[in-house]
Specification:
alpha+beta, 3-stranded mixed sheet, 15 helices, 15 strands
């Protein structure tokens, strides 16, 4: 499979379906690249090579599966696979082996994907770099001194390094879009409730977190969402179903869109000139394609939203850590987790049930404000991040300089976190690289339940300025 990296996931599946290669050959190609390249980037933390080889030999149960035989990685955060460690990037969970399978994992299998490992996540997904005390650092394939983003940085680094064409990812504050931006890839965060969280939970971070993937091609993202979207049994709520398969939307013309552009972060963090330049470049490209760019409207109370999100994330983090400690038969200790994680958990311990109820009201009100803003436009365009990929160590949950860590975090999530709060679908598109050769993504946000509009525009942008062949040099 010398030409393995020429294909996206659907392309590899087509080769298998036509008999031009086997699933076993694809898995061996993925394993060989992982063994050769991953030591330099640290993306794959739990190999499952022998299980993948056995699955490849068995073949897909569904001959019509869209990704039959395609190698795949699960992010090591929350998704359960029976008999395989689920560490959540944390030493506290290092020996946790679930007995149940997440519904989303079952859907990946039914789609024909073969899981050959789990990708790195920071502890509990609580920062926008992928560094943990448990597994070390994930490095950006474009420049190993810099972060691959987070919390799905392992997934993004693996795809950028050519180990596979698509990988599972999740997003609670930007954790699909940020690593996609850092690594020059396509990352779509679906609408709140679009993909299932069961059976271990009904939602993530009160609906702020959702699960999908980081991909090289737009069509892989669309086809995977087609295969996995929809509520599971007992889900508390669900997004509205699409009018047609999202894969059919990718080649459809988006029409003339009114795109509102915003250059200032929602939380007040400063914007690096590189990110402003990437934004203007994307706006100019959209105008060349016939779309109208207008100033963005709307105002959000940054301090109220910061407090609400900290209440939600802090209380749920504390509850998770206490439940794990109880399962181990002991009390939770500060040194069970990294300093940044403990700080978040302490916030949760200090908040009351009333605080939590107020936080929910605050984020739901923001969702309605965002919905109203789309009365004047079709999409919202911003940078994905307010700064280029940071150097490793700055965003780490174990960085002793908490002020530097927080400043960098606010720049990383300055455009993304609001979209988690409001629940809208959004995508990071790789259209620009800075002078240092680092990717700088731009973010498009759509009204609730309108991933279709994002996929149509993404398909148009991908055709106008292809990015699939723009890749970092292979790791030694």
């Amino acid at each position: 499979m010398e030409d393995y990296e020429r294909y996206d996931g659907l392309g590899l599946a087509e080769l298998v379906a036509r008999g031009e290669c086997s699933a076993a050959e694809l898995i061996e190609a993925a394993i060989a690249r992982t063994e050769q390249r991953d030591p330099a980037i640290g993306a794959v933390v739990i190999p499952m090579f022998e299980a993948a080889r056995a699955a490849a030999q068995a073949g897909p149960a569904n001959a019509a599966a869209p990704f039959g035989g395609v190698p795949f990685l699960l992010k090591d955060l929350h998704l359960a696979l029976p008999g395989v460690r689920l560490c959540n990037g944390s030493q506290l969970f290092a020996d946790h082996i679930p007995e149940v399978e997440s519904e989303l994992v079952a859907r990946y299998r039914r789609a024909g994907l073969i899981i050959f490992g789990k990708s790195h996540s920071p502890e509990l997904g609580l920062t926008t770099t992928t560094e943990s005390r448990l597994f070390g650092q994930t490095r950006n394939p474009w420049n190993p001194a810099h972060t691959a983003g987070g919390s799905s940085g392992g997934a993004a680094a693996a795809v950028a390094a050519g180990l596979l064409p698509l990988a599972n990812a999740s997003d609670g504050g930007g954790s699909i879009r940020i690593p996609a931006s850092c690594c020059g890839l396509f990352g779509l965060k679906p609408t709140r409730g679009r993909t299932p969280h069961g059976p271990l939970s009904g939602e993530g971070w009160s609906g702020m977190s959702t699960v999908h993937a980081i991909t090289r091609s737009v069509r892989d993202s669309a086809a995977l969402l087609d295969a996995t979207a929809g509520p599971d049994a007992g889900a508390p709520y669900a997004a509205q179903p699409p009018q047609r398969p999202w894969l059919e939307e990718v080649p459809r013309a988006p029409g003339r869109l009114v795109i509102a552009m915003r250059e200032e972060t929602w939380n007040g963090a400063p914007v690096h000139p590189d990110c402003s330049e990437a934004l203007r470049d994307a706006a100019a490209l959209c105008e060349e394609l016939g779309h109208e760019i207008v100033p963005a409207q709307g105002h959000f109370d940054a301090e109220a939203l910061r407090s609400a999100s900290l209440t939600i994330i802090g209380t749920q983090t504390r509850a998770l850590l206490e439940a794990r400690a109880a399962a181990l038969g002991r009390a939770l200790q500060q040194d069970d987790v990294e300093p940044g994680t403990w700080a978040v958990a302490e916030i949760g311990a200090a908040r009351s049930a009333t605080d939590y109820a107020r936080a929910l009201n605050t984020i739901h009100a923001a969702g309605r404000e965002m919905a109203a803003s789309f009365s004047a436009c079709d999409l919202l365009l911003t940078p994905t991040m307010a700064a280029p990929p940071a150097r490793l160590g700055v965003l780490s949950l174990s960085n002793p300089d908490g002020n530097a860590q927080n400043a960098a975090l606010q720049q990383a999530i300055g455009f993304t976190q609001l979209i988690n709060i409001t629940g809208n679908p959004a995508m990071s598109v790789p259209l620009w690289w800075n002078g240092a050769g680092l990717p700088i993504g731009v973010q498009f946000t759509a009204p609730l339940d309108d991933e279709a509009q994002l996929f149509r525009l993404a398909g148009q942008l991908e055709a106008a300025r292809p990015w699939a062949e723009r890749r970092p040099a292979p790791a030694a």
